[in-house]
Design brief:
Chain lengths: 117, 109
């Protein structure tokens, strides 16, 4: 398996522009997570999906952020308009969560390093 | 609310044993995970404890005490390549993960 795939790997944009980050989870996984990592705030969960349905988006910073998962093999995280404080590494992770929570491993993608000027 | 505490930095020499502690306060708890992240890389899974006790996987072991809301990661026979950040993460009700702030481990020759 290719693992979790994210694109682009690096994105540099100007303040006010729209940014779309993409993620392809591991085939067969039923949960997908979007994280943001910065030196100041560490690794923060933004939103996660279970069976393509958003379960908890309380970590989404504000309305400028939106995420979709139209099918089991694709998800997007969009920032519109982008601001310099959005600069961070954004990770997508997928997991096959068992019903009894007996085994829970998240597989992370390589991340997208976003710089907003 | 959810909070996890870990030491910010730990330093040890090659061949030594190091223990990284994690204490947590969460509303709802299923289990405790540990992840390793090298600079510029993505977090990678090391272990998951749902029950009290010690889990051993090669040079790494992870311990959980649910009654104390405490766990640790034990790294034995340290190698230079173990220099990385280590995160504990709690799986909480709703099946999402809350990550600790991370511990930066430096292994010296």
């Amino acid at each position: 398996d290719a693992g979790v795939i994210q694109s682009p790997r690096h994105e540099v944009t100007e303040m006010g522009q729209e940014v779309t980050l993409r993620c392809k989870p591991i085939s067969g996984h039923n949960s997908l997570f979007w994280y943001r990592q910065t030196m100041m705030r560490g690794l923060e969960l933004l939103i996660y999906f279970n069976n393509n349905v958003p379960i908890d988006d309380s970590g989404m910073p504000e309305d400028r952020f939106s995420a979709k998962m139209p099918n089991a093999s694709f998800s997007t995280l969009k920032i519109q308009p982008s601001e310099p404080r959005d600069s961070a590494v954004y990770f997508c992770a997928s997991s096959k969560l068992e019903g009894d929570n007996s085994y829970n491993e998240q597989f992370f993608g390589p991340g997208t390093r976003l710089t907003v000027l | 609310g959810q909070s996890l505490e870990q030491p910010s930095e730990v330093t040890a020499v090659e061949g030594a044993i190091v223990q990284i502690n994690c204490t947590y306060q969460t509303s709802g708890f299923y289990g405790l995970s540990w992840y390793q992240q090298h600079d510029g890389g993505a977090p990678t899974f090391l272990s998951y404890n749902a029950l009290d006790g010690l889990e051993e996987t090669g040079r790494f072991s992870s311990f959980l005490s649910r009654s104390d809301s405490y766990g640790y990661l034990l790294l034995q026979e340290l190698q230079m390549k173990d220099s990385a950040s280590y995160f504990c993460a709690v799986l909480v009700y709703g099946q999402n993960f809350v990550f600790g702030p991370g511990t930066r481990l430096s292994v010296l020759p």
